[in-house]
Specification:
Shape: globular
Distance between the termini: 36 Å
CATH class: Mainly Alpha
CATH topology: Glycerol uptake facilitator protein
Mean pLDDT: 81
Number of helices: 8
Low-confidence stretches: none
Structural class: mainly alpha
Oligomer: single chain
CATH architecture: Up-down Bundle
Largest sheet: none
Helix content: over 70%
Radius of gyration: 19 Å
Length: 205
């Protein structure tokens, strides 16, 4: 492990970038989940009224549910990472995830002091993003996009899924944005690769 991993130095510019980046990322990502699952949406309500007395209602429910917690939300999170990475990647590295920060610490690419500060900033930014979402909507009943384990899955399924998807993200981050052997063309497009990794991980059930 590199000596830099034991450094207690903290760059406050990195901390501020991580906090702001995480706040906007959470606001956009969970906002997509919340607003697309809003039962008061005019389009959804009108459509429901049109098909409420037909056999299409179950299909409608599946489509609206999948649109809110499936492809739409996954795209929001994936594109959010791409935008953030291109915006603050040169400032803090755009970790925007405690798991990514820990993986960079373990690989010797982030000092322990900076890692701790980044994780605190990320958690604080996530809270700010949720507060912004709470303040810009009346959808508090929707849980502000909080996750839960589906009825078809066990807690063990969910934990294993999180481990695999987190590994995919960290693996892509290291091989595209961190690995010195990565060609310039790949390194320059790292935000796209990382964003798509988040998109794929978010798309999985």
């Amino acid at each position: 492990m590199k000596k830099t991993a034991f450094s207690m130095h903290v760059n406050l510019r990195h901390v501020v970038a991580e906090c702001i980046g995480m706040a906007l990322f959470v606001f956009v990502g969970t906002g997509a989940a919340v607003f697309f699952s809003d039962p008061k949406s005019t389009d959804f309500t009108n459509a429901a009224a049109m098909i409420s007395n037909t056999r299409l209602e179950p299909l409608f429910n599946v489509i609206t549910t999948n649109s809110s917690f499936g492809i739409v939300t996954a795209l929001a999170f994936g594109i959010g990472i791409v935008v953030s990475a291109f915006s603050i990647g040169h400032v803090s590295g755009c970790h925007l995830n405690p798991a990514v920060t820990v993986s960079l610490l373990l690989s010797g690419n982030c000092g322990i002091g900076q890692a701790i500060a980044n994780i605190v900033a990320q958690c604080g930014g996530a809270c700010i993003g949720s507060l912004l979402l709470w303040g810009t909507s009346d959808l508090r009943h929707a849980g502000l996009g909080a996750n839960s384990v589906g009825e078809a899955y066990t807690v063990g399924n969910a934990v294993l899924g999180e481990i695999v998807c987190t590994f995919i993200l960290c693996y892509v981050v290291h091989l595209t944005a961190v690995d010195k052997n990565s060609p310039p063309s790949t390194n320059g497009l790292a935000p796209l690769a990382i964003g798509f990794a988040v998109f794929l991980a978010s798309w999985l059930p």
